[in-house]
Amino acid sequence: MIMINYINKLPKAELHLHIEGTLEPELLFTLAERNNIKLKYDSVAQLKLAYQFDCLQDFLDIYYQGASVLITEQDFYDLTYSYLQKCAEQNIRHTEIMFDPQTHTERGVAFETVINGISMACIDAKEKLNVSSLLIMSYLRHLSEDDAFKTLEQSLPFKHLITAVGLDSSEKGNPPSKFKKVFEASIKEGYIPLAHAGEEGPPEYIWEALDVLKIKRIDHGNNCLQDQLLIDEIIKRDMALTVCPLSNTALQVVGDLKNHPLKKMMELGLKVTLNSDDPAYFGGQLNQNFIEVQKALNLTKEDLYELAKNSFQYSLLSDKEKQTNLNELEKYYAN
Ligand SMILES: Nc1ncnc2[nH]cnc12
Ligand SMILES: [Zn+2]
């Protein structure tokens, strides 16, 4: 059975989303013009043709290029508000937004410009769209730990606006242990530790993220399936995986959605959530991920309910906020 309508109205949270990855080609061109930036592509159609990826690195090269049109506070505001409007349309009640400060500070854009633009949009969206959000500052793992320390330092005046730290970018060759000290320091500052692990990297990287970085949630985590002891450990620790199906097929982590391990993960007892990762690049927003994976794997209403429930349960919201969202979901499911 196809459940597009049911999915569209299902109350849900998104826990794995890069704000730079929500930059739609149309907005990218608008911002390039506004900031007098010459692009390599003549049109939106031509740019879209470049969105063909063989692996994570292929994508990252284009994604960092795209982000170079973001210059002013207004740019970051427009980018973020536009995503939050899409959340409202999809009945995403809460979202946990990753941002990559180093992608911008490396180009001479101040940390302050980035965080102010993003967080102002979040405040306005709460008021006008009733979508709640919080921010995850992600360190780029292809850069050095010293560089991450500089970013941590820059974030401190804005600590009240940031809930967690993450780790993203090129996984292979950049194990979590490279960032042991900066994660320890981030935890001391009150940030909750999260990390991408096991997207392209081996199960050992997931073990390191758990044991060395002390993470509370695993971004992707697909490759845990290669290690039964690791699966047992993740279940024992009651940790969630933020799974991103359309990202996985776009980056050739999974060949075909029909072979996506989501259902298997659920059957094994792993707690999983569905997410869009970089929707402007991977062919679909969160609801499109739900719709396509439901169809490919024949997910039932109970499965969809479990995924939505996990998205609130494993969010970084307070227990009270979780309960409010869960009550709303419960009501929807019962009707
Ligand atoms: N899927 C992904 N993996 C690692 N780094 C990323 N940055 C943006 N999207 C990413
Ligand atoms: Zn990601």
Automatic annotation (TrEMBL):
GO terms for molecular function: adenine deaminase activity; zinc ion binding. It catalyses: adenine + H2O + H(+) = hypoxanthine + NH4(+). Residues 11-331 form the Adenosine deaminase domain. The active site is at 199 (proton donor). GO terms for biological process: adenine catabolic process; hypoxanthine salvage; nucleotide metabolic process. Its EC number is 3.5.4.2. Binds 1 zinc ion per subunit. PANTHER family: ADENINE DEAMINASE. Catalyzes the hydrolytic deamination of adenine to hypoxanthine. Plays an important role in the purine salvage pathway and in nitrogen catabolism. This is Adenine deaminase. It comes from Aureibaculum algae. The lineage of its organism: Bacteria, Pseudomonadati, Bacteroidota, Flavobacteriia, Flavobacteriales.
